[in-house]
Structure formats: C-alpha cells, structure tokens
Amino acid sequence: MTLGAFQILAALIFVIGGIGLYRQRADMLRVGISILVMALGAVLSLGAAAHFAGDGAGRVLIAFALVALVAQAGVGLAIGIAFWRSRGSIRLDDIKGLKG
Amino acid sequence: MSIVTLAFLLFALSALAGGLLAVLSRDAGQALVGLGLAVLSLAGLLVQLGAAGLGLLMIVVFAGALAGLWTFAVKVGGLDLGALRAEITRQKRLIQGVAVFAFVGLSLALGVWQATLSEGEAGRLTEQYTVLLLPGLLTVMAATIGAVALALRLTGEQTSWIEQFWREQMKAKRLKPITQRRGEG
C-alpha cells in the first residue's frame, strides 16, 4: 500500500471525528469521543509517514502522542466528573459558569 | 488482490465504520463500542505498517481510556446497564460475528507482519514486546476490574468482595483498640 492510501484514510477518520465534534457540541462525553477519533486519524497519519520515511524516531513520537492523548482524556474525565458532582450536568453550555 | 491489500481494506473499512458509529450513535454504549472498533482497526493498520509495538501500545492505553469513558458514561452519561444487557442478549449473533471478524482481521495482520520479518528479527521483537506486554496487561486488568466495580456500585448492585473488603476496612478503623488486661496471655 502507498503512503497516499494511508493518508487519505487518516484524513477521512479525522474528518469523521470533526463531524462528530460539530454535531455533539453540547455533551462532554460525545465531545471527548469525537476528539479521540480525530486523534486516531492523526496517529495513523504520523505512523504511515514514519514508516514510509524509514524514520524510527517517528515511532517514538507516536508512542509519546498516544500516552499524552490518553492522559488528557483522563484529565478531561476528571474535570467532567468534578463538574457533574458540583452542578449535576455535563452539558458544555453549563460550563460557562466556571469563568472566574 | 494480495493479502496485504485485503488486510488494508478490511481494517480501513472497519476503522471508518467504527469512527462513524462512535460519532453518530445516540447511545453512549454504542459510541464506545464504535470507538473500540476504530482503535482495534487502527492497531491492525499499525501492525501492517511494521509497528506492532505501537499497535500493542495503542490497544493497552486505549483499553484504559475506554474503561474510564465507560465508567464516566455509566455514572454521568446516564447509560442504562440493564438496557445494555438486554441489547447484548438481543444482538448476540451480531456481537459474535464482530468478534470473529476482529479476530480474523488481527490474525491476518499479524500473519502479514510476520511474513515480512526474518526469523531472527521475529524472535528478538517477540522478546522485547513480551516485556512491554506483561505490565500493560496488568494495567488493563486493573482498569477493567475498577471500571466494572465502579459501574456496578453506581447502579446499586452488589459489588461482591471489593465493596465488602472496603466496608470491613472502614469498620476495622472505627473499632477501639483492644488493650491487654493484666494477668492474661
């Protein structure tokens, strides 16, 4: 398979995540899932580029990206749970109340 | 059509289907299943690209993320576990089909990957990834048990020994220390 095929697939996955982000703007859980789908597209793109360039450092970068991605998902979930416990809602419209 | 192209098409289609299910489904449980399918498919694609370690890492770290999201969906998102259980029973055939599909796909990817390696390389990589795999599997197991226990606790069902264990611990902390009386022991 060529690099182009992988990049097109990665772009499609990224666009699907973007569509989800646009459609589900109100719900924190759906927004998180959509961002993860977008990140999967980015990881595939990076992986394909690293493979076809023959660059081993690219794989290390992907490993870092994956771990950082899941860590930020964990932080997002923690914020969501804290917000839900204080306000009883996970709708992003309600988070305007967090402004200092 | 070569086996490599077939594997690519299989993973590409399931990744797109999983992504669409994840973002378009109204049910949080289905969305998480879609995300899991997309993650598995992308892991297969990474294996096909010769990065089996990254595919493994992706499965391990996303298993933790999915466990967290699952707990979040049950606790906060209002995911009804009873309805989900009924849905799983109803869609048993479909789920079995997806499981067989995923197994065949991953086997195909591993076969393609192994076919591209020499014998020495394969042995060396297996040794390296076994070291990665063991702590990863332990982490996944801990995250899964934690997510299931939390989910059951939040839905008011008994959490078997885990909840019992913590109750006993708290009870023991509340008890007064026993002082030994003179002449005993």
Describe the structure.
With 100 residues, chain A is mostly helical. Chain A has helices spanning 3-23, 28-53, 56-87. Chain A starts with a helix and ends in a 13-residue tail after the last helix. The mean pLDDT of chain A is 83. In chain B, helix 1 packs antiparallel against helix 2, helix 1 (3-24) packs across helix 5 and helix 2 runs antiparallel to helix 3. Chain B is flat and about 80 Å long. At the A-B interface, helix 1, helix 2 and helix 3 of A face helix 1, helix 2 and helix 3 of B.
Give a brief outline of the structure.
Chain A has 100 residues and is an all-alpha fold. Chain A is built from 3 helices and no strands. Chain B has helices at 3-24, 28-48, 52-75, 81-90, 92-115, 119-154, 160-174.
The sequence of SSEs of chain A as H and E is: HHH
Largest sheet of chain A: none
Please work out how many helical segments of chain A DSSP would assign: 3
Assign a percent range to the helix content of chain A.
Answer: over 70%
- Uncertain ranges of chain A: none
Write down the Rg of chain B.
22 Å
Distance between the termini of chain B: 83 Å
Low-confidence stretches of chain B: none
Largest interface (C-beta under 8 Å)? A-B, 42 and 39 residues
Which secondary structure elements does this structure contain, and how are they paired or packed?
The complex is a heterodimer of chains A (100) and B (185).
Chain A: H1 3-23, H2 28-53, H3 56-87
Helix pairs in contact in A: 1-2, 2-3
Chain B: H1 3-24, H2 28-48, H3 52-75, H4 81-90, H5 92-115, H6 119-154, H7 160-174
Helix pairs in contact in B: 1-2, 1-5, 2-3, 2-5, 3-6
